[in-house]
Amino acid sequence: MGRIVVISTGGTIASRWMGSGFAAEADGREVMATAPLPEGVSVDVVDLFSVNSPRLTTAHQLTLLRTVHEVLADPGVDGIVVTHGTDTLEESAFLVDLHHHDARSVVFTGSQLPMGSADGDGPGNLYDALLTAATTRGLGVLITFAGRVHAARGTVKTQAVALDAFADPSKELLGKIGFGKVAVLRNPERPAPLALPAMPELPPRVDMVMHHADADPLLLNAAVEAGAQGIVLIGTGAGNATPEIVEAVRAAVARGVLVALTTRVAAGPVTEIYTHGGAVDLVAAGAVPTGTLRAGQARIAVLAALLSATDPATRTRTLRAALGTPDPVLVDA
């Protein structure tokens, strides 16, 4: 079915017992040795790095992004599989998807159980990822886990330790894998891809601040003072906060900070329903609503926008483009 390049980055699928807990230590060839290959598939391995995914930095993720593009520059490659830790897999996959302009699939997978576990899920997930990379086209970046295929956009880790770890709480399942076949159930919605960003000497700081009962603007203001160029405000409900936080958002935007608005609720879109500090006021103050993207992926969208330009207006337009939402139409009074 084709030649697949496996990019190994660590995670539980590459983890061993280290005396007090598990840590990523195995290289990509050791990981590949645990799984059978689908018939007709050949594999090349790129050992990019081997870390537990909570330790990933923007520099790691941009290196992965550029490596994907370098691999796909070879027309003899039929697809890519990225083995990755589950904690931040949704962020890295979405970053690659935002910049993915190729019909060939890039498939992220990992495991919830470490190497050598009885009935471990790594080998099966890896087999499914290889099969998906070899047999699908035009779907963008995908995540395969526990016999299911997910679009990168909107998919998050929904289970801390259960094997069926990923889902998009706001959309129907993209596909299923079984009996050596991949069944695609729908086509994902994907905006036009962004241009590949340069590797900055110092990546822009993007912070996340969550609203809660009795919250005040202290942490949001602290992020601005710490040099954040972007902030993701995680509101309650459909994307709500308080009048005091609205004013802090307005002040941050006036200083050129790119502010995105998401919600701490598991499913459903940010919606402009409420005033008195709600999404109506936050959007009017300059926050960009992120639809059904949750905090981690909203942060990646902000990061991509910041890397695309230096002026605030262009960054805001790029963020809206990444979200698939047009700029609001201004009507003269």
From TrEMBL:
Residues the record marks as active site: T12, T86
Pfam families according to UniProt: Asparaginase (PF00710), Asparaginase_C (PF17763)
Asparaginase/glutaminase C-terminal domain location: 205-314
UniProt keywords, alphabetically: Hydrolase
Catalytic activity annotation: L-asparagine + H2O = L-aspartate + NH4(+)
Keyword Hydrolase in annotation: yes
Xref: SMART domains: Asparaginase
Enzyme class of the recorded protein, top EC level: hydrolase
Residues in coiled coil: none
InterPro entries according to UniProt: AsnASE_II, Asp/glu_Ase-like_sf, Asparaginase/glutaminase-like, Asparaginase/glutaminase_AS1, Asparaginase/glutaminase_AS2, Asparaginase_C, L-asparaginase_C, L-asparaginase_N
L-asparaginase N-terminal domain sequence ranges: 3-188
The UniProt record lists the keyword Transmembrane: no
The EC number(s) this enzyme carries: 3.5.1.1
Family: Belongs to the asparaginase 1 family.
Protein name per its UniProtKB record: asparaginase
Organism encoding this protein: Streptomyces katrae
Organism ancestry: Bacteria, Bacillati, Actinomycetota, Actinomycetes, Kitasatosporales
